[in-house]
Each structure stands twice: as structure tokens, then as C-alpha cells.
Fold this sequence. Notes:
One of its GO terms (molecular function) is oxidoreductase activity. The protein is of the alpha/beta class.
Amino acid sequence: MARVFMKGCEAIAEAAVRAGCRFFAGYPITPQNEIPEYFSRRMPEVDGVFVQGESEVASVNMLYGAVQTGTRSMSSSSSTGISLYSEGVSYCAGARLPIVYVNVGRGGPGIGAIQPAQQDYLQATKASGNGGFEMIVLSPSTVQEAVDMTYEAFDLAERDNNPVLVLTDGVMGTMMEPVELPPMKTAEEVAAMKEARRSVSAVGHKPEEQVRILPGGVGGSFEPVNIAAAELYKSWVDKDVRVEEIMLDDAEIVLTAYGISGRIAKVAVKELRAEGIKAGMIRPIAIHPFPYKSYENLDFDRVKGILDVEMSIPAQMVWDIDHAVHGRCPIKECLRSGGELMTKERVMRAARELAKEVL
């Protein structure tokens, strides 16, 4: 397939359309505005619906309603806007609805900065809303990965009847790269996907139709719903962990990062090797479920230190790294936040300092 040159936000929107998304509701916020702008132009071309909600709260509840009809539906926002989604996303998790949404992260907390950051990791992986629900959370380091993840997110959401989040940042959202776009679902395929969800959709049913009502509602015990959800979350450990491991066979220090920081750290590893420092890398591609085994399986007789690279102060992913490492080697941090970008030079300087301390 031919490659095209696209901005990250627009590529994400196009990937969703090609995956069969036919409803989008959202509210403007930098740096993700190109996603709803693109949908506003593209949806009429595929007989889809675009709605600019009057707020983030309105938008996520429109998303709830649209996906209840069996329509592949999506929304997007950025950091502070995503906080306003939390109640609606929790409703969707409780009702086991397959929504897809995108967070193009910015600096914080509060209104913060409109520049890129990775300060929503804990929100995305540990506390996206009340009730202790979990989601698969994918985090791209290239525009191509953003396209592929968005396209697949709809299948994952419908497989599990559960929300899926694509967590990216303002660098990925605004940069331009060549990408190969996935195939476009035909009108017949889109109709067939919607029909396949008819038995769990609120579209009106005849008395004799077989209808399976998904969990959710007020009153009575929610514990059986929680037990079923917990079994779903456990299943992800075996089938949905996604991680890139780089030059770990002889690594003495290991860099670890996700998303845009992972892209930067990957270049740093190659240059550190050229300097004679045996560096390796672990890049979580799905940050939930987290690839704990990649850290647990390191040879700590050889690996003397880990460098956590994040655009977040204080560090957030380091909690999961520490949980996996169990104190078997020191974990140092290389951090930026609030819209200040990570650089290769900063990563290399921190890695050299770590190497001097532990080797």
C-alpha cells in the first residue's frame, strides 16, 4: 500500500474511519484539535455522524449513547478534558460498552501547558474513573503505530466489550510522518459489524428475539459484574502484553520509556553502545497491561541499573518498574514535565551518570 505523509492527529482520525468508526463526538482542546476537525470533514463522506459537543461531559455521554446502538464510536481529548470524561468512561466500563477514545496529552496538573507531556500515565493505567475498572491502554512512539493502534482498538474493544484508550501526546499528535494506512472497511462490512452487535444493542427488539443484556444498572449487587471484569483483566496478561525489548542479552544498564520518550531513548541506546556502554532498553507498547515479566526476567547479576525516562515530574511509570524489579537494582530517573521536551542528549547524559555509579 502506498505511503502518505500525515500529521499524527489526522492519521489517527483517518485510521478510525477506516476501521469503521461512524460516530465521533468531541470538544476542542489543544493539542488534539485536528482530530475533531478531520472528523468534521471526513464523516459526511462515509455517511457517519460528527458532533461537536457543548462540553467534554456531553461528548462522552453522546459516545455512550452512540455505541449502545452497535455503531463503532470514538472520542478524543487532551489531559484536562480526559479528566472530565472519567465519569462517562466509568459508565461505559460498568455497562461493558466498547468505546474507543484518545488522549493527546499536555502538561499539567490543572489547565497546565498546551505543550506535550506524559503526565497522565497513572490516570490512564490506575484511575481512569471510579469503581476500579481497567482498560487496555496503547501508547504509540511513531505515527504509524498510532494508526495501527487506533485501527485495532475497535476490535479489542468489541472483543472484550470494554473501553480501550490510546494514550499519546502533543509531539505525536502534531508531528508529520509517512504512514501506510490500513484498508478501508466497506459499507457492507460496517453494516455487518453493526448487525453482529444487534443482540447487545439498544435498537429495539421483537419479543421473540434472543437478547443478551450486558451488565450495568442501578440497584442490586454489582459484585458478579466485578468478578467477571476481574477475570477479563487477568486474561490480558497472557494475550495482550505488548513490549519491545532491545539489546538486553548483554545489557548492563537498561533504559525504559514509552511513547515519545521511548522513541528518543531508543536512539540514545544505539549511541551509548557506540561509546562502549552496554545499554539495552524495554519499551512498553501497551502500558496496561504492563510488561512486568520483561523486567522480572532481567539477569540482575549483569544488569546493574535501570534508567526510567519520562516526560513527567514526579515520575509515574517508575511505580510499575519498581513493582517488577523488587529492589534488585537501583532505578534512576531522567525526567521532564509541563511541556518541556525530552532530548536525546539529556537521556545520554543521565545514562552515562548511571553507568559511572553502578558499573
